[in-house]
Design a protein that fits this description.
Length: 294
């Protein structure tokens, strides 16, 4: 069974009056590519978050967002005054004025100085182990939800890819119908051409050897056998236990494309070329869908 690289998961963790929302979204990517948006107090755990996500998701473009809402504050979004910073600026101001009474209210200006007004999130400097344990459990729950979503998407992908492979196999069977007529038609056309040249005394044995050599170059039985093998290999890879089949399926799709292209170049028959075009259309759909496989 295959897994998709597309997934989404969301979990809300409650801890001591705080509402912690964890949201994770994944898309396809050649490697693991993780971006995080964490509250100030959780940033020290960024590496742990990335490691945990890598262990669960393995590959893909991963966006992790953790937002914190302090329900106990009752004043969500309101900034706090950093008293220590304010006192520091007041002392400097008093020292600079040295007893001179300014004609303006400098308190408003002090509040605009860096570090005086801060968000409640920034004021929380330490993260307790108990809080992080709750967040980590929520993160693992969200990651598992993403994996479950990927599994559902993978089942749909497997059905689509299996149908496309079956379509190519059906079209390959149709190649056999014009194939027999094609060789006979080419041989007849060559013999008719020689008769029109009215060449006498040529070596018929040598001519037969040349015709056989030419027919062998146009023969597509080997290509058809290899194509059938690649189609079966593609299906066997999809049937394996959950893993990282995406890259392998991509490589097999390339080999399928090579055999289809060779069939087209050797066909020399309008009906066969039409079949090859239909095969290529099915293959393009396979390649596009395979990019989403883990």
């Amino acid at each position: 069974m295959i897994l998709s690289m597309t997934g989404v998961g969301k979990t809300i963790v409650r801890y001591e009056g705080k509402s912690i929302t964890i949201f994770i979204k994944t898309l396809n990517s050649k490697q693991i590519d993780i971006s995080t948006r964490l509250p100030y107090a959780y940033r020290e755990r960024d590496l742990e978050v990335r490691t945990l996500a890598t262990n669960y998701l393995v590959r893909g473009k991963v966006e992790i967002s953790i937002s914190l809402d302090d329900l106990g504050a009752g004043l969500g979004g309101v900034q706090n005054i950093n008293g220590e910073a304010l006192q520091h600026y007041i002392k400097q101001m008093q020292s600079a004025l040295d007893g001179v009474h300014p004609s303006f209210n400098y308190m408003e200006s002090l509040l605009r100085l860096p570090g005086v007004l801060v968000s409640g999130e920034t004021m929380q400097q330490e993260l307790s182990e108990d809080e992080w344990a709750a967040v980590r459990r929520g993160l693992e729950e969200t990651l598992q939800a993403v994996v479950d979503y990927r599994r559902q998407e993978g089942a749909m992908l497997e059905e689509v890819l299996g149908q496309r492979i079956a379509n190519i196999r059906t079209l390959l069977g149709e190649v056999d119908l014009p194939e027999g007529e094609r060789i006979a038609s080419i041989r007849q056309r060559l013999e008719d051409g020689l008769r029109k040249l009215e060449i006498e005394g040529y070596d018929k044995g040598r001519l037969e050897q040349e015709l056989i050599y030419y027919m062998e170059r146009l023969d597509v039985n080997e290509e058809k056998d290899r194509l059938r093998h690649h189609l079966a290999y593609f299906e066997s890879e999809m049937a394996k236990a959950e893993g990282q089949q995406g890259k392998t399926l991509g490589f097999v799709a390339q080999e399928i494309g090579r055999e289809i292209n060779t069939l087209g170049s050797k066909s020399n028959n309008a009906e066969m070329q039409q079949i090859v075009v239909r095969m290529k259309d099915e293959l393009e759909q396979i390649k596009e869908q395979a990019l989403n496989v883990l």
